Amino acid sequence: MRAVIAEDSVLLRVGVVKVLEMAGVEVVAEVGDGEALLAAVEEHRPDIAVVDVRMPPGFTDEGVRAALVIRQQWPQTAVLLLSQYVEERYAADLLSANTSSIGYLLKQRVADVEGFVGALRRVAAGGTALDPQVVSQLLVRRHSGPLDRLTLREREVLELMAGGRSNAGIAGQLVVSESAVAKHINNIFAKLDLPKADADHRRVLAVLSFLGVA
Question: Where would I find the HTH luxR-type domain in this sequence (predicted)?
Answer without folding.
Answer: 143-214
